[in-house]
Design a protein that fits this description.
- The chain is mainly α and 128 residues long.
- It folds into 2 domains: 47 residues, no CATH class; 71 residues, no CATH class.
- The protein has 6 helices and no strands.
- Helix 1 packs antiparallel against helix 2 and helix 5 crosses helix 6.
């Protein structure tokens, strides 16, 4: 089945029409339930725009773990986490230990420390 055909079927159902016969669906049909109609239109909107619904933090973390990456790889740093990583680094915790603790890559830790001015880019390998 092609995407266009699937879209037509979903549109018919969302509009209360049997896609196979063109007949109006009975009032008792589950496709006439307001929540089902909204769900169908949401899916149609997503298909038309080509955009995927935004993933939750937990979904992104699960995806990272399944792909063999650290749990928080690629996720945004909160202000609280930025302060915490800086504080721990200043107290002598090594980059590799920070990466394990924050469940991020070594490069992500080093990059954040560079942004905060705590290390220089050319000294990253020295701060093992």
């Amino acid at each position: 089945m092609q995407l266009g055909e699937a879209r037509e079927i979903l549109a018919a159902l969302a509009n209360g029409v049997n896609p196979a016969t063109g007949e109006i669906l009975p009032e008792s049909s589950p496709y006439n339930d307001p929540n089902v109609i909204r769900a169908l239109f949401t899916v149609l909107s997503t298909i038309k725009s080509g955009k995927q619904p935004k993933k939750t933090l937990e979904e992104k973390q699960q995806e990272n773990v399944k792909a063999g990456r650290p749990k928080n790889a690629g996720l945004a740093w909160t202000d609280e986490l930025k302060e915490q990583v800086a504080s721990e680094f200043k107290s002598g915790v090594l980059i590799d230990e920070l990466a394990t603790h924050f469940e991020r890559t070594r490069g992500a830790i080093a990059s954040e420390l560079v942004k905060q001015g705590l290390i220089e880019e050319n000294t990253i390998d020295e701060k093992r």
